[in-house]
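SEQUENCE-TO-STRUCTURE ENTRY
===========================
Question of interest: how does this chain fold, as expressed in backbone structure tokens?
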Amino acid sequence: MSLTSEAEEKIRRFERKIVRRIMGMKKIQDQEYRTLMNHEIEDIIKGEDMVRVIKARRIRCYGHLKRMEKNKHARKITECKPDNNRPRGRPRIRWEDQVRKDLSKLDIQDILR
């Protein structure tokens, strides 16, 4: 599955929601509480964004597939090029295309061959 910017934002919102639920309410005074703000949640997470984790794991999986023997089923399926045409309209982003985009953002070109 490829991550669109909309899907990335949904994942980030979900992550903030879960962290808010785990951390609970922040006590202001004796009987006053408030929810955590986004910048407070980012301080708690400390840069370990779920979208970043997903992209890193996708690149790691791609590396495993590229090092795999050519006769293994996982590699055959990944490198398979079906004969039938893709449907009309804007082409969907394929998993491998998304990995290549992630790698190009990191300026990694050697693995793309």
Remarks:
- The radius of gyration is 20 Å.
